[in-house]
Amino acid sequence: MQLKALLLDLDGTLIDTAPDMVGTLNRLLESEGIAPVEAQVAARQVSNGARALIRHGFGENLTEQRELQLIENFLSDYAEHVCEDSVIYDGMSEVLTLCQDNDIKWGVITNKPLQLSRDLLEGLNLLNRCSILLGGDSLPVKKPDPAPMLHTCMVLNLAPSECLYVGDHARDVEAGGNAGMDTAAALWGYLQHDDDASRWGADYLLKQPASLAQLLHERFR
Predict the structure, then answer these.
(1) Which residues are catalytic?
(2) How many Cα atoms occupy the beta-carbon half-sphere of 23 within 13 Å?
(3) pTM of full prediction above 0.90
């Protein structure tokens, strides 16, 4: 079936948010006299959200109360720095333009809180260009549950088979696949060293955004 919508994960797929998210983590660490984390290593936790970053920086043996407080502090600081150094990945602007030139809707389905996602996309002048934005708190459940994908199809009045979902985590492929969408693994994202994306079950493995552009060209035919 002809592709009618490109749906994207946010962190590690559309936008490189690691500079700002790791920056927030290091400010929290500094405030408590703890050495900063190495940016490239910590970046691999970004797709797993604030909790994973807190555990990376502060250790796994936190009490629940302590962890929740650190997450709250993290989100508060990050909200003030959400779009300082984050950038759209090289080649993704061309992908979005390609969609618009071919009357293909594009949107974002992320586990990131909706308001932070809105602020990020608005800061990069992308919010008014996307057809839909669904955050991790937009529905009672989030990825890997397929509900956000099915809700998006309902809003866009499309069948899942008319959509391609692209993400850099196994949960993205699981959610998209269980919803009946074609899926692609974004290998340029925040994969762990031991991640084997070939085992996620994605329909496509894409090394770089240019690979996504080529795939879209083929699907437009």
Answers:
(1) 9, 11
(2) 16
(3) yes
